[in-house]
Automatic annotation (TrEMBL):
This is Uncharacterized protein. The gene is 5580219. The lineage of its organism: Eukaryota, Metazoa, Ecdysozoa, Arthropoda, Hexapoda. GO terms for biological process: digestion; proteolysis. CDD domains: Tryp_SPc. Keywords: Digestion, Disulfide bond, Hydrolase, Protease, Serine protease. One of its GO terms (cellular component) is extracellular region. Its main location: secreted. Belongs to the peptidase S1 family. CLIP subfamily. It comes from Aedes aegypti (Yellowfever mosquito). InterPro entries: Peptidase_S1, Peptidase_S1_PA, Peptidase_S1_PA_chymotrypsin, Peptidase_S1A, Trypsin_dom, TRYPSIN_HIS, TRYPSIN_SER. It is found in: Secreted, Extracellular space. It comes from the Eukaryota. Gene3D superfamilies: Trypsin-like serine proteases.
């Protein structure tokens, strides 16, 4: 995986659900660049959010038997009929169990212009059956400043101009401090690295890309982040995630 892409990149600017962002604020909805093919069952909490035509558009993670956790920029404006939850597979073209959606809950303080509070929940219409291919991931209750060996996974683009993979990709990356993250971004982008976000830094040629949005960042067996935005793709700038520990209370209160 190189970099997770959140939304979609236009020449010189990015349109986010109808909003035009500064030219240097590039987002992605994509796939991990410079990553590795995941094996069956390696990331049993990984979810593929798909349209009514079975097209993957974002990632998510299983947090209980009726709810998956994703990014608000993935789900704002989507209908239940056009949001399907596929669990239990590492391949887009086969396997897994597809669930219809019964409810979408976007964070009430989500801001489409800045991607602040980029968190959402999708309730499945049927119960998710757990097995070796479909399991929950614990939600972190701890604010982590730095760490190595964090795991990001997703079906985002393999590069800014590349297609999405059929096989789930994963990447080992490093969590860096918010101060370091802000210092590596432009002034405009640094202003969008909020205290309730978490950043990772990978070598150039690795990172998140378009299509990875909404997917999980995991360290120590706990989900630490939700893929939110980055500079596409794998260009050496930090990727930015909504911080799970900061939103944990809201998530637990609404995933019922």
């Amino acid at each position: 995986m190189n970099r997770l892409s959140l939304l979609f990149v236009l020449v010189g600017a990015v349109a986010v659900f109808g909003s035009t962002l500064p030219a240097d604020y590039l987002e992605w909805e994509g796939r991990i660049v410079g990553g590795t093919n995941a094996a069956s069952g390696q990331f049993p909490y990984q979810v593929s959010l798909r349209s009514s035509t079975n097209a993957h558009f974002c990632g998510a993670s299983i947090i209980n038997n009726r709810y998956v956790l994703s990014a608000a920029h993935c789900t704002v404006g989507r209908t239940l009929a056009n949001t399907r939850v596929v669990v239990g597979t590492h391949l887009l073209n086969s396997g897994g169990v597809a669930h219809n959606s019964a409810r979408i809950v976007n964070h009430p303080s989500y801001n489409a212009n800045t991607l602040a509070n980029d968190v959402s929940l999708v309730q499945t219409a049927s119960v998710i059956i757990f097995n070796n291919l479909a399991q929950t991931i614990n939600l972190s209750a701890t604010f982590i400043n730095t760490a190595s060996g964090a795991l990001a996974s997703g079906w985002g683009q393999l590069g800014a101009n590349a297609g999405i993979p059929n096989n789930l990709q994963w990447l080992s990356t490093s969590i860096i401090t918010l101060a370091d993250c802000r210092g590596r971004h432009s002034v405009a982008n640094a202003a969008r690295v909020f205290d309730n976000t978490i950043c990772t830094l990978s070598p150039s040629g690795q990172g998140m890309c378009m299509g990875d949005s909404g997917g999980p960042l995991v360290h120590g067996g706990n989900q630490q982040g939700i893929v939110s935005w980055g500079i596409p793709c794998g260009l050496g700038a930090p990727d930015v995630f909504a911080r799970v520990s900061s939103h944990r209370t809201w998530i637990l209160n609404n995933a019922v």
